[in-house]
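Researcher: Go.
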Amino acid sequence: MAFSVAVPDRRVLADLIPGSLARDAGLVVAGAGLTGLAAQISILTPLSPVPFTLQTLAVLVTGAALGTLRGALSMVVYLLAGIAGVPWFADHSGGLGGPSFGYIVGFVLAAALVGALARRGADRQVATTLALMVAGSLVVYVVGTAWLALDLDLSAGRAFDLGVRPFLATDAIKLAVAALAFPAAWRLARR
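Model: Structure:
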């Protein structure tokens, strides 16, 4: 009598693309580019010194699709290129600092976390995908809001009111889109 043990699939969607180092480099740059492009969809509001953008969605999708290392490296490329002056932060800006810079720093950590959870298969079902996207968003909120509080000398409560509360509804929509898209992509990939 033979016994078998099911081994969990530790791949992320990017692993389904043939290639190796060149593929990985291209995916890292593409993830950074997607984030830079998403940052240009930017709406300033009196509710916050931080604009509404699609960056967070791009970061979470990049992390889940590329995995821990490639996802984090994409955000490092995005961060460093922006610091160097590439105008691909929100509103065609670049450089170091400003009220929203902490969110960009948080992108690196969020992409790594989401990538690690996706590598463990958390992006295969709607509920678990939603949970990993929420976890990534929380990382962005924590780092971004802490920076916002320091940059503008705000209390924790005021930083939350300016740096989190205005974004909860729109981020919920972004997370729902991702939570539906990833399981659907995996179903297509299995065919």
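Model: Helices lie at 21-39, 55-66, 68-83, 101-119, 126-152, 156-163, 168-190.
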